[in-house]
Amino acid sequence: MRSTIKVFSIGFQVILRDAVMLVLIPAPFLVGVTFHYFLPLLNRFLIQHFAFTIERYYALSDGLMMLLAPILLTMSSAFLLLEESDEGISSYFQITPAGRQHYLIARIGIPALWGFFCSIIIGKVFYLSTLSFSVIIALSFVSALFGCTVAMMIVAFANNRVEGLAISKLTGITMIGIFIPWFVSDSWRWTVGILPTFWIGEIILGTSLWINLFLGTITSLLWIACFTKRFLQKINH
Fold it and tell me: Which band of pLDDT confidence, cut at 50, 70 and 90, is reported for residue 163?
């Protein structure tokens, strides 16, 4: 554990000196503030001018901003991991007492854990709907795992930070799963269950909480395992 914290502290000092990675740390709370104050204003505008309300989707917006929290935090660590991989530092950490397991936990696991708590805070402070605390916990947990998935996806396929930025934009496609349970009722929607975000959408709806939590956890772990394997193969070559 001491080795993990030491590796994390080294990486955190690097993040503090990099403007691109540093801005991602407060970003989840900026998203929360934006959603909390902008959406009600937008809703009033739509009611006044178009007699249309988006209030029914407030729970979805709460889930979306809670999902973004761990993604943004783990993404900053993914960029750091890419930088270290490009400089050969990641290979060095694998042969130190820290080892590859502690290295990945320090770079991805700890930021994801922090993202989990940030997601809970955001869900309790910047909420627009009435999600129960159990739903907030389940949503934050799967979101943190999905943050790990996104981070490992970036480092698995990108060779440098420029490529990482491009891939991070493409990973937004995987977030479409959160919207499917809300807007698609056809049976084919279950095929999107391969995406962890689909089960996040189901969790927000509040149906079969424990089943959706389990399936969201399993799909996230499977994706994490696949991308981690590819990343380790890449840095070993």
Answer: confident
